[in-house]
Amino acid sequence: MAVNGLKFVAFLVFGLSVASSWPSYPDVIQGKGKAFENVTFPLPTFLDNVSFIEEIKFDLIALNPNLTTDEKDSQLEAWARNQSAAVYDAYTEYHANLTESINEIIEIFNNRIANQSKEVQDLYENIKDIRLNTNITAIQQCEEIQEAVKNSSAITFTKLRIAVPIITGDCSVGGYRGVIGSIGSGVSSVTKSIGSFFGNLANKFKF
Fold first, then answer.
1. What is the pLDDT of residues 77-131, one digit of tens each?
2. String of DSSP letters for 144-203
3. pLDDT, tens digit, for every residue of 55-70?
4. C-alpha distances out from residue 31 to 10, 67, 172, Å
5. Are 164 and 124 in contact (CB under 8 A)?
6. In a 3-state reduction of DSSP, which class is residue 116?
7. Per the UniProt record, which residue ranges are transmembrane (predicted)?
């Protein structure tokens, strides 16, 4: 099943938000559901059975970088409870399957890091803790990841990115310390602009 339009956005973004999950490049972007190696993300087929307005409501929550993961989970749960019983059940199953896929990916990453140097392992654990912190927003997550990478050596971060290519998720900051400043600030600026946009949009739409 290919994911198109808002369903694609929901698939990609919500897939990244659950449990502060790692994103799934390039197959997820193509709507194939592939997350990493042999692990796949489930598709949000429950959105096939809701109205266009309900899809917008879903996206306003899932896309909002001003919300913490816990806040997103709580608000999306409330959204699902306002749908039909069939949609709610499908959403609940999707959430559970997605969380399971994320845990499988983390286990793969843990195994890949096991034989790396202490410096690489420490940076990995630091970034993993940030990615799994459900009490910070996407904006805060990017800022903390960028700071962690700034405080590491270029070679350590390069080795980490080779072992775990998608460790920094949407907060990619480049493989060299000298690139951190320009790329990092750019990502932060764009993320904050998106956050402002969705905050204003959510305030204007009173469903």
1. 999 999 999 999 999 999 888 888 888 888 999 999 999 999 999 999 999 999 8
2. HHHHHHHTS-HHHHHHHHHHSTTTTGGG---SSHHHHHHHHHHHHHHHHHHHHHHHHHHH
3. 999 989 988 889 998 9
4. 11, 25, 21
5. yes
6. coil
7. none
